[in-house]
Request: fold
Amino acid sequence: AIHQNSKRRRNRFVPLNCAALSEGILESELFGHEKGSFTGASYQRKGRFEFADRGTLFLDEIGDMPLTTQMKLLRVIEHGEVLRVGSNVPIKVDVRLLAATNKNLSELVEEKKFRDDLFYRLKVITIDLPALRDRLDDIPLLVNTFIGEFAGRHSKNVTSLDKEALDVLYSYPWPGNVRELRNCVEAMVVMAKGTTIAKDDIPDYVSQRVGLEETLMPAVSGLSMESVEKELMKRTLAQAKGNREEAAKRLGISERTLYRKLKQYGLE
Reply:
């Protein structure tokens, strides 16, 4: 939307997922390479920066970018030029840079996993997209869109979702946000036996989590918020079989926050 409503809309919009590539391949994708610069480089290749010249380059999941690549990206941003892998000749580029992440970059900076100078260089204009659990009114719109997409892809005559199933989706915290909802809807479309998705078609990991919370709530009525949080963490850890990374994901919080809470409540 930013690209299409800008003066750059007649030029390219170029996306790149930083989490999907190894460090060496990511640098080649970003900056390009010269023929013979590494094993397998049988021809000269423009990188995404050159390809997006006068347009927009969108770096998705930038929080997963390796530190060495971050340093090279910072140089490109500051000087407006790239060096292809295996070359010493700088190439001028004019690119609008957009970056997205589902991680807390401020925390990564504190943990020395993301460069602070790059963080502040990128942080010019920030659009904070709330987690799906904080904008539940979007769920019916997204579900209807995904049903149309996957019904066609899997040749299923599915057209809608019943109210009981929708209520379950409203009750789930969606730690994976829209991508997780999209995968969930695809599974439901595949499993649906009729034209309407029912509660029984919802994947177990969603319905079981909702069931756990529905069981938990009567048990914690009248307790303090601190006691409720402690009990929820205990049960989630038990359900995750002690796997803290999985427990943090199910709770919709960072591992760092989970560790701090566990220490606070003496659950280490």
Notes: The mean pLDDT is 88. The chain is about 50% helix and 10% strand.
